[in-house]
C-alpha cells in the first residue's frame, strides 16, 4: 500500500517489488487505477479515503490511542517541543525559551522534549527558560516511546510545531498549542475544538504557501508571537480525567 504520496517517487519503487496488488491513488502514467488525488484534503481524511476506496474500513475521526501504564516523568507539566525534521517548521529557540520562562514564573512545571540529534536545541530552550538540565527528555537519542507517551498523556498541555508530537497530543487527548508555517493546519493540523489551538498567519488562502522542508524558519511561522502562544495556552481547557489516557496497556 502506498501511503507516501501520489507520484513516481513512491509508485516506481513499490512497483519494482512486484506486489500482487498495489493500493494507491490513481496515476494514469503508472497505470494505477485508484481514487482521485485531492490536493486540498487533510492527511487523515486522505489516507482513510484511500483505504475505504479499496474496501478497508477506516474512520478519520477515530484518533485516540491508549496511554502506557507507566507513570509520567513529570505529571501535570507543560511540555515544550521545539524540534522538527526541517528548520522551516521550527519556531525559534528564543521564543520557546521565553514561553517556558513565563510559564515557570507563573508556577507551572515545564519540561522540554527532543528527538535524536536535538540535544543542543532542547538544552538551549531549557537554559533560556531557566530550567535545569534534567528538565530535558531525549536529545542524544529519541526518548522511549512509552516514556514520551506517558509524559504527554498526563501533561497539562503541549506547545509544539507542525511535527509528530502534535499528533501524539491529539491521539492522547492532551490540550495543545500547535504552531504552523509553510503548511496549513487544514491539511496537517489537529481536529477542530477547544482542546487544540492551531496558530497560523498566512498571506492568502493557499494551503501550502511555503516549503515544509525548507532550511530556514518559514516567514508565516515567525509571525507567531510569544504573547500569542501564552494567550492560546491560557484559553485551553483544564485537563480532566480521560478514559483513553488512563493505564490500559503497555
Shape: globular
Cα-to-Cα separation, first versus last residue: 28 Å
Radius of gyration from CA coordinates = 19 Å
Low-pLDDT ranges: 242-250
Share of β-strand residues: 5-15%
- Relative helix content: 25-40%
Structural class: alpha/beta
Instruction: Please count the beta strands (DSSP E, at least 2 residues each).
Output: 6
Mean pLDDT, rounded to whole units? 91
Q: Tell me the series of helices and strands, N- to C-terminal.
A: HHEHEHEHEHEHEH
Biggest sheet, open or closed, and with what strands and sense? 6 strands, parallel
Tally of alpha and pi helices: 8
Largest beta sheet: strand ordering: 3-2-1-4-5-6
Characterise this structure.
With about 250 residues, this protein is α/β, with parallel strands linked by helices. It is built from eight helices and six strands. A six-stranded parallel sheet has the order 3-2-1-4-5-6, sandwiched between helices. Helix 3 crosses helix 8. The longest helix is centred in the middle third of the chain and has 13 residues. It is globular, with a radius of gyration of 19 Å. The C terminus is likely disordered.
Index terms:
alpha/beta; six-stranded parallel sheet; 250 residues
Question: How is the topology of this model organized?
Answer:
Blueprint: H1 8-16, H2 43-53, E1 78-81, H3 93-105, E2 110-114, H4 119-129, E3 136-138, H5 145-153, E4 157-161, H6 164-172, E5 176-179, H7 185-188, E6 196-199, H8 226-235
Parallel strand pairs: 1-2, 1-4, 2-3, 4-5, 5-6
Amino acid at each position: 500500500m502506498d501511503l507516501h504520496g501520489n507520484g513516481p517517487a513512491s509508485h516506481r519503487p513499490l512497483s519494482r517489488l512486484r506486489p500482487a496488488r498495489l493500493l494507491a491513488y490513481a496515476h494514469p502514467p503508472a497505470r494505477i487505477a485508484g481514487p482521485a488525488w485531492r490536493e486540498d484534503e487533510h492527511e487523515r481524511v486522505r489516507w482513510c479515503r484511500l483505504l475505504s476506496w479499496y474496501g478497508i474500513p477506516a474512520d478519520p475521526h477515530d484518533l485516540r490511542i491508549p496511554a502506557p501504564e507507566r507513570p509520567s516523568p513529570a505529571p501535570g507539566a507543560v511540555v515544550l517541543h521545539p524540534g522538527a525534521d526541517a528548520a522551516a517548521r521550527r519556531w525559534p529557540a528564543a521564543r520557546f525559551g521565553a514561553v517556558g520562562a513565563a510559564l515557570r514564573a507563573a508556577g507551572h512545571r515545564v519540561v522540554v522534549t527532543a528527538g535524536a540529534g536535538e540535544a543542543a536545541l532542547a538544552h538551549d530552550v531549557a537554559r533560556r527558560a531557566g530550567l535545569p538540565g534534567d528538565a530535558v527528555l531525549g536529545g542524544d537519542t529519541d526518548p522511549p516511546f512509552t516514556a514520551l507517551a506517558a509524559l504527554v498523556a498526563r501533561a497539562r498541555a503541549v506547545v509544539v510545531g507542525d511535527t509528530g508530537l502534535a499528533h501524539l497530543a491529539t491521539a492522547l487527548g492532551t490540550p495543545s498549542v500547535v504552531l504552523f508555517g509553510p503548511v496549513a493546519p487544514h491539511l496537517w493540523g489537529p481536529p477542530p475544538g477547544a482542546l487544540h489551538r492551531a496558530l497560523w498567519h498566512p498571506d492568502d488562502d493557499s494551503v501550502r504557501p511555503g516549503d515544509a522542508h525548507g532550511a530556514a524558519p518559514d516567514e508565516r511561522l515567525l509571525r507567531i508571537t510569544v504573547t500569542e502562544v501564552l494567550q492560546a495556552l491560557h484559553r485551553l481547557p483544564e485537563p480532566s480525567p480521560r478514559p483513553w489516557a488512563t493505564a490500559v496497556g503497555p
